[in-house]
Amino acid sequence: MTLLGSYLTLAAVLFCLGLYGVLTKRNAIVVLLSLELMLNAVNLNLIAFSKYGMIPSLTGHVFTLFTISVAAAEAAVGVAILIVFYRRRVTVNVDEFDELRR
Amino acid sequence: MFGLNLDITGELAAFFILAVCAITGAVMALNLTRVIHSVLSLAFTFISLAGLYVLLGAEFAAFVQVLVYVGAVTILMIFGIMMTRHDHESQERQRPLTEALAGIGCLALFGILFFTIRGTDFPAPAGALPEDNVGELGRLIFSGFAIPFELMSVLLTVAFVGAVMLARREEDDLP
Q1: In angstroms, rounded to a whole number, what is the distance separating the alpha carbons of residues A90 and A78?
Q2: A100 touches B: beta carbon within 8 Å
Q3: According to CATH, what is the number of the domain A4-93?
Q4: Model confidence at B130: pLDDT above 60
Q5: Domain residues for B28?
Q6: ipTM, interface predicted TM-score of the complex
């Protein structure tokens, strides 16, 4: 019995917490951070499988590095969009980001 | 069902402590009212996850996690907070229906994942990771994953230029 199940359960807990934050929070920065939390849960899965999976290999680590880079790029662009939006409509609430819907 | 016949080893104890830290940080980030406190407690979660990566034998990933998440993403978010105003966050409008529905959905997703994980018997790993992890990882990235690696650098450059272009103050808009 390895710890794989426990790691996967922890990742599931973190993913669900992040999903809850994305769905319910109104502050755009908290929403972005919850997204990062979800990506981190996925990374934990990848690394756990690369040690405890059927064929241990370093491919999971490589994928984790790529995911971290994509997450960093996403955070940078997200904060840039947030600042532009704040400049136009002085708010950071995500439920006021509805210009395309109106 | 929970497999509680595990003997208490050092790895188990370390895993438990780090897991509790990670979950505590995430829950506090969702519960705290001030945004800066949320960001800091999520930084705590990220550090705990780096500890878990070390536990899993992924030293380089742990290093990158601390460098990128704790060092860069958190600081970026703090800059985002500094450049925007968060006065009205205290009188946050309550939306009980949305929150309840989201909570039910997340709990259902977690239940499905939990019972799937507990119901699967994973085969024992055949072999182990190489001892010199970081060296092997470098060899793998620069041989087998060379093209994705270069594409990743292109992506980072494009994201950087795009972020600068987006956040640049446009002179035409000003009166």
Answers
A1: 17
A2: no
A3: 1.10.287.3510
A4: yes
A5: 9-87
A6: 0.91
